[in-house]
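step=encode ok
step=design start
structure_in=
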């Protein structure tokens, strides 16, 4: 397969509200971030991938299976961590995760063994016999993650897994997601916190009001290096010279962001400024983050 998830003109509406608007996306193997503001359509997209919602139009393929006509085959291969509270308070973590493993088809003995191993993996080995009603938000999120991976799925869908967590809990959850990726498990993680996606994911799908803004590799720790130049004088002469030289750049008011790395970029900027007879008010090196890109491509 070239992709683990393929969306073709995916559209879904709730009456007059269009939640997803003609999405064409191919998601590669690895850890993918699904980002957008609250209400952008992220949860709707995840539910369609699971076959829990049928889109108004378009087609959906998950791990080579049609999510609309063959949802059971999809769910057999996928783990899902919902966003909201969904745990039974009167069960222990061990009992609940073992139950979900049995629901996925594991024999009772194997289900209990896998539940214990999975709870150990998410850091709940000492708490696994406590009742879920006594768990903190962070512990509950780990149990939800455990039930999503206990049956060994090929793809895991995580809906806002760090929601409601304190800073330490958020870091620990992101580290768990990174570990899953290192094990070769495919993950799609939904979040409205772009820095979380940047530090965790290899690929990103950006949504804004149901529309696809961008899909492609994440900058992550290797964020795109840029040099920001504030110009005094005819801006079009300076940017025209950049374009003629084949230099990738963007413009905001009197500031030009040039995508480049290495110290030689400063010599180039000096020479172009001199040849176009413009002044330089400010010159600084910075990195273009997902947040910069998202804000530049949407009305947020």
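sequence_out=
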């Amino acid at each position: 397969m070239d992709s683990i998830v393929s969306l073709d003109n995916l559209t879904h509406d709730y009456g007059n509200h269009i939640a997803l608007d003609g999405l064409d996306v191919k998601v590669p193997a690895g850890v993918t971030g699904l980002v957008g503001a609250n209400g952008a359509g992220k949860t709707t997209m995840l539910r369609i991938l699971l076959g829990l919602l049928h889109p108004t139009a378009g087609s959906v393929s998950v791990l080579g299976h049609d999510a609309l006509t063959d949802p059971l085959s999809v769910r057999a291969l996928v783990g899902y961590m919902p966003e909201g509270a969904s745990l039974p308070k009167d069960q222990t973590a061990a009992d609940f995760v073992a139950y979900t493993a049995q629901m996925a088809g594991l024999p009772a003995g194997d289900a209990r063994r896998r539940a214990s191993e999975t709870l150990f993996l998410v850091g709940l080995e000492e708490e696994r016999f406590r009742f879920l009603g006594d768990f903190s938000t962070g512990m509950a999120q780990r149990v939800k993650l455990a039930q999503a991976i206990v049956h060994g799925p090929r793809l895991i869908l995580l809906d806002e897994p760090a929601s409601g967590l304190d800073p330490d809990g958020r870091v620990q959850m992101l580290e768990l997601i990174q570990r899953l990726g290192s094990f070769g498990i495919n993950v799609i993680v939904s979040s409205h916190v772009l820095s979380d996606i940047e530090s965790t994911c290899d690929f990103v799908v950006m949504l804004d009001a149901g529309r696809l803004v961008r899909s492609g590799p994440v900058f992550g720790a290797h964020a795109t290096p840029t040099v920001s130049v504030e110009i005094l004088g005819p801006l079009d002469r300076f940017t025209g010279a950049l374009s003629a030289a084949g230099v990738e750049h963007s413009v905001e008011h009197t500031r030009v962001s040039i995508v480049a790395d290495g110290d030689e970029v400063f010599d180039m900027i000096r020479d172009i400024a001199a040849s176009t007879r413009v002044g330089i008010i400010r010159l600084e090196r910075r990195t273009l983050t997902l947040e910069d890109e998202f804000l530049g491509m949407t009305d947020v």
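step=design ok
step=annotate ok -> DSSP finds ten helices and 14 strands in the chain.
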